[in-house]
Every structure is written in C-alpha cells, then in structure tokens.
Amino acid sequence: MLDGLVSITAEDQELTVGPEGFVLIPRGTAHTFANAGEREARLLVLHAPAMDAYFAGLHELWNRDEPPSPDEERALMARFGMEPV
C-alpha cells in the first residue's frame, strides 16, 4: 500500500492495510478491495503472470461514453479465466 487505508477481503479473511503494508493473494483466490479510510488510498498491484491484455480491455470498457454493463465486465473476465463470485 502506498497511501491511505485499504480493506482487503480474500476468501473469508478480511484485513485493513496501511502505508507500506503488503498482501499476497495467491492465484485463484477470490478477493476484492476497497478504500477503508476517509482520504484517498493508493496501492500498487502486481500480477504474475502479467494481465496486461485484461487491463487494456477493462480500460476500453470504462472509457466509452457509457459505463459497461455487469455482463460486459463478466464476459471480459471470463476471456481471461476469471470467475466473479
């Protein structure tokens, strides 16, 4: 984590991480994160293997005139082997 507080849920575990904190989410682990504080939070996310094509597709979806539908986001995730829970 770079700044602020981030709430992370991985499977059934919840934790809040602050600046200089680190969390490793193993491949295939259901997870989500959110800003847990009152000010802006910044985090650095690293993927191995890289998921550049997924994030390029996500960028395209969110930079249209209208936001994507949940089905469009799920279809993109499915193309890259992700399964929303």
Please sum up the structure shown:
This protein has 85 residues and is α+β, with helices and mostly antiparallel strands. It contains two helices and three strands, in the order E-E-E-H-H.
Q: How are the elements arranged and paired?
A:
Blueprint (H helix, E strand, L loop, with lengths): L5 E5 L2 E5 L13 E5 L16 H11 L7 H10 L6
Helix pairs in contact: 1-2
Would you write up a description of this structure?
By secondary structure, this protein is of the alpha+beta class. Helix content is 25%, strand content 18%. A three-stranded antiparallel sheet has the order 2-1-3, with no helix packed on it. Helix 1 packs antiparallel against helix 2 (70-79). The longest helix is centred in the last third of the chain and has 11 residues, at 52-62. It is globular, with a radius of gyration of 14 Å.
The biggest sheet amounts to:
3 strands, antiparallel
For the biggest β-sheet, the strand order reads 2-1-3
Shape assignment: globular
Q: Give the beta-strand count.
A: 3
Catalogue the unreliable spans. Answer: none
**Helix-strand pattern:** EEEHH
Task: List the main descriptive attributes of the protein structure presented here.
85 residues; alpha+beta; three-stranded antiparallel sheet; 2 helices; globular
